[in-house]
Fold this protein.
Amino acid sequence: DQQVKQNSPSLSVQEGRISILNCDYTNSMFDYFLWYKKYPAEGPTFLISISSIKDKNEDGRFTVFLNKSAKHLSLHIVPSQPGDSAVYFCAATSYSNYQLIWGAGTKLIIKP
Amino acid sequence: DADVTQTPRNRITKTGKRIMLECSQTKGHDRMYWYRQDPGLGLRLIYYSFDVKDINKGEISDGYSVSRQAQAKFSLSLESAIPNQTALYFCATSARGERRETQYFGPGTRLLVL
């Protein structure tokens, strides 16, 4: 059973609007969460992360929110730009485990 | 030049053949990883190495082996390829002292086993 789930395979958003990508997890031992971005023919690149001791982390246009009680995190991109079109992966890990557990990814398409 | 390179970028092979995927990095990182990605699934860890003499199995190591020839080189071998090993393979690195989860990925190798 997948421990990290991204239930939306794709998302289409108008340029300038907010993009919200969602991620759910089942393992309560996870204490660190990350978002990676992937363009075609390239490897994933680290975007932003959040520790379980926080509920929000911001970096420029990107904000990640963590709701531990709901085991849910989301990535907000404001405003969305054409260069944000990519596949976004959510990943999680626990302090005692060096492995990242990845979601299946959400393809974000920013429409001009 | 890319910090993490993978060769080949694409490979078609036949069932039963031995194949090696290579990864090199110029980032000076001590930690290296091999992942595979399948459609509809996230990345899954095959093997990881924290230094030249430290190699560990990941989530899905069966059917694979690795070699850490030097700090900068980490190879993945399929001793006898089978069709369900058709996937996109990524190598990644990270630095001790940084958050281990901040990994730097190569561009991937697309493998097709017929």
